[in-house]
What we know:
The model is unreliable at 1-24, 645-654 and 699-710 (pLDDT under 50). Strands 1, 2, 3, 4, 5, 6 and 7 form a seven-stranded mixed sheet that branches. Strands 9-8-10-11-12 form a five-stranded parallel sheet, sandwiched between helices. The protein is an alpha/beta fold. Among the domains are: 32-225, no CATH class; 537-695, Histidine kinase-like ATPase, C-terminal domain (Heat Shock Protein 90, 2-Layer Sandwich); 710-849, Rossmann fold. The protein is elongated, with a radius of gyration of 42 Å. 35% of the residues are buried.
Amino acid sequence: MRRLLILLVLVVSLGPGGAWAKDAAPLAQRLEQLSQEIGAHELRNPPRDNEDVERAGRRALRETGQARLYGVWRVLYAYKSNQIQAPFDTWVAQTREVARRDKDASLQTLVDLETLAFRHERGGFQAFQDADWDRFLNRSGPDIRLMAGVERVRHLGQVGRWAQAARLAAELTVELERRGRIAQPLLAELHQVHSYTLADAGDKEGALDHMAQAAALDERDAFYVRKIERIYDIAFTAADLGELDAAERFAALHHKLTLADGDADLVTWDRFLCARIAGLRDAPARVIQCLAPAAGLLAKPDRRLQVRMLGQRALAAAQLGQAEAARRDLEQLKTIPESLASRDQPLEALVEAYIDQGRGRSAEAFRKLDAWRKADSLAARKVHARSVAEMSAALESELRAKRDESRRLAEEVRLSRSLARASVVIALLLGVLVAGAAAWAVHQRRASGRLKGAQQRAEAASTAKSAFLAVMSHELRTPLNGMLGLAQALRSGDLTPDQRDQVDLILDSGDTLLVLLNDILDLSKIEAGKLEIAPTVGDIVQTSARLVGGYQPTAREKGVTLTFRLEGEAPGPLMFDGVRMRQCLSNLVSNALKFTTQGKVEVALACYPEPDDRVRVRLRVADTGIGMNPATVAKLFRPFTQADASTTRNFGGTGLGLNITRRLVELMRGDIKVESDEGVGSVFTIEMVVDRAEAPAPQAREEHGAQEQVGFAALQGRRILVVDDHPVNRRVIRLFLEPFECDLVEAEDGQQALDALEREAVDIVLMDVNMPVMDGLEATRRLRLDTRFHRLPIIALTADVMSAQIKTCLDAGCDAHVAKPIDLRNLLSVMDRCLARGVARDAAAGLSAL
């Protein structure tokens, strides 16, 4: 069996992926090469107090998702691997707080894993139980499984289950390589941990090979404390291989780096390494000298490594004939609890023998060793048999991995030869391609010219379309403003019931025309990619309930039951575009009421929590209307499309509402679905994921409520300049403001407005934008250049409602914008707000002057 093991080690070492096959360099030279790969001699100005680790940790906590998880793992693992207690505990507490705040279950599980792993390594690999492995490897997600897998490989190697460790390492390597760059530090650590297993199994060259792979992955970018650990591993492996000169050289470098770092926890590792090499050189006095700086720690050992150092000191003292010192250390070793470290019976017997020999009782020493040998012989044979089997299986697994790599390299060689043979054919083809390249270039130049011309024509058409829509919007809204404005003014007066019905009919017809105009503009903006979603903090339950409530009169008039219900708990404040959400829901509810002549329309809202503090919103509108067949459903969301010609005749509409709704839902990163049976009814479902938000301050709501209660008090008795080239528009505004006893000054263009302001002072200006002689924007700019009118409130009145045109008004110096056709309450609210803001500003200026 021993010959078989030696043969396996040689096969592994000499195989295509073996360490010796790479350069056949002497062992000492290979160790030096590995040191250069790690960059040990390039360390200058080392960070104090592990500042590089701390900086990486702070950066990781600012990330989210996988970036944060893998970044925090690097920090916790660095401190855990070197048993640096204080900063480890600090980062554990800080990470737990972040995980609790963000409800990050994976981050919380990572902290639990590394906390248990710290205790596991420190206490002799006995902390993990089967239930713990099951939790982390099988029930905590793929990322935690990989991180726990590294700990499992380390554990299996330490308890002598090398075959399982090798198999698990091979599986994890494949998975981590698929993960890419984010998992490279984890893959590097897996190679490093697997090198320990191979070293214990007897494949020292394989261990060096995996150390080199770890270095190639991340060592140039590793933490300073991790570089120190790598130097320790090289020195330890060199000592095991018998290269004691190289081991001492690396141990000296490790000592230098440890002193530069200044961390007291690293001193323990440094002193243990020094004593181990001295012990292998059979220099007990040097062992005592190496362990002297750690005497305080060995007085009361609480780590497995300190127990081993205590054993080193006991053996060295016994070898030097210091019987009392050796006896004290030996008695202390016998009192160490098994939970911290297992008893080392051979070491204790050897120390006893040296003590007896030092006291002149050589025969007694021989008799004790012989008695221990006989008692331990049977157990040793059983352990040896198991170890041989484990070692053989582990080396077989490693050999299998090397064979796979060899086959891959052979395939690469075969492909290289095939490419070489194909290069002749490629050269001939290149000649043909060069000949055809000129003709192709001429063709491409012509095609490029045609494409450029087509693109310019398309851009010109798009510009013309936008200009046409802007002009049509203005031209249509101007007469609408007069019609709807006069109708609103009429409705506020004393009318007979018949007259009121007629005015309401005018308003309904005008509103229908306005909805059509808005739909066309929305569709145009969506197709041009210029409609933007603007999420704000809001209560989606109240928003939906209020909108449904607004349709109750329509439902009662038709004899249809309209209901709204919340399924489950209210989600609280959310980030969503309230305007577009209301538009989508309004389209669905109005459609449901339009096509339902009897029965009911139900609106249901349900909210479900999602990871990363998000909420899935599901809005469902169900009706018992006419329903649709599959052919109609298939074309339902196309623009300007309805079920058939009878739909337009019987119910009206343009077929734009559902198409706009679908596009708006998609812009809000959601989805809309429809289920319908002809003659039974339809169900429309909107589903999207939104972010949670903090509740807005109550003060803002109180101020808003107070403002509503004053009833536009700021408008009372004001002098107002109305600038508009259409007399009907000026008359509408006069009718709107009559109840507030306002004094109106009128102007037909911007120049007349400037002249009027020179003659008399006003409190606020209502400025139309498109006018002859001088438009409203130019007049506003000139007013803002005059210091007398810096604070004069100016409200733009325009039929141009596209976002770019609104922004132009505000950039010119207007305080606000009101779209035509003018809504009475909207105009009064904007005017009241601008005037109230001016009063507050003047009062503040007066106080500062005092």
